[in-house]
Amino acid sequence: MKGLIATVGQSSEPLVKGIEQYGPEFVCFYFSKSAATTVEEVKERLEDGKVETLDLLIEEPQDFNRCFEAANEAVEELHNRNIYPNDTLIDYTGGTKIMASALVAATLGRGFHYALVASSLDGGLQYVYMGEGDGDQGGLNYIDDGMEELLCSHNPWEIRALESKRKIQRNFNNYRFKAVIDQVDSLKKKGLSSNRDEYLLNAIRELARGYSRWDRFHYEEVKEKLREGSEDMQTYRSLTQPRDQLDLSLEKVEENIDFLSDLQKETFGFNFEKRIGKTLAVDMFWNATRRAEEGKYDDGMVRLYRTVEMFGQVEIYEELGCHTDQIPIDLIPAELREGLRHNPNEEGTVELSLYDDFRVLGTLDNEIGQDFLKHEEDFKKIMRTRNTSFLTHNYKAIEEGQFESHRELVEDIFNINRRVEFPKLEIGVSP
Questions:
Q1: What distance in Å separates the CA atoms of residue 110 and residue 44, rounded to the nearest whole number?
Q2: Is the dihedral of CA 190, 192, 198, 202 positive or negative?
Q3: Do both 141 and 218 map to the same domain?
Q4: Is the same domain home to 330 and 207?
Q5: Would the pTM count as exceeding 0.90?
Q6: In this predicted structure, what is the pLDDT of residue 17?
């Protein structure tokens, strides 16, 4: 440690113990008038020239606001000497409770390290240094000189924020990205993060923004947000040894970016009016799967039906070179023309329904169209299930087993072998 900010009480032993153990280059004594003598005693015991010191006298040690202001002055003094939080120890052993509390409050979440002096006595029980003298002198001091030991703790941000991290983890992994963004913004607003953790929160926020847009089919800017989040996560990893920290697979993020690049290229820059392509249908399939993971089987079923419809539209475009709502009638096999719906906006064209798409494709010897017709009864079940759900025409809730059986059929018939999985946040604990 380069720097030490220490509250000072009535005994010099705790401070001498801490300085000897950590060997700081600079010590800021944070004390009241009653502890001025202690400060001088500590200085006398320091090796000349080895440690630079600064006295920060607290005129009103029972006034929290004044103590808090003084603590910020101490931090500023270290900053002026190019000594930063990650190289600074906060020792809050001595002084009044208000002084110690104010010092911790002023430095919380800024990357400092924390310690206090204690001793293991009476069968291993630990007692915190409270003053001078021994236990028989008014109970001011539970520790005999020479029995001191330094108890170091992680930045209280790590403890205080752990539950917030767990909430962020749960919401991110359950695709509740708006909640993640709100939680990150709340933490940042309250100042509950160190400079290092800013990279972590920024990474999670940008990733959540990107995946939120993706899940709502707003594909523009998604790749940029995923890249920004990935870069911030890499920076964060380079600054810390993860402990109880949120992390995710950057390789999976890169896979997602590659998938979006393929989708962008296939659809001429996400111009779905011009061309949708098989990649978009695959994406819809995995979107449906994510809704089912949330337990939203009715929602997933509607999207699964849309997946089937998209594959039909893609194959029609590949075979006939036009969209399913404006197909020249003379491109339709003669035996299938009767009963088709004519497009009222363009003479000589027809609009095909989902079932019509695959009948036409089957007649044209399209492999997917023929596979569809081979499993026609199974696909009719998909249509019936979708049409009787709460989100369409009826009031029957779809169960998990129904959805999964239909999902497996769609995955098999349309040969969906490319997976689209969003990364999961994990809290990793280092050894």
A1: 32
A2: negative
A3: no
A4: yes
A5: no
A6: 77
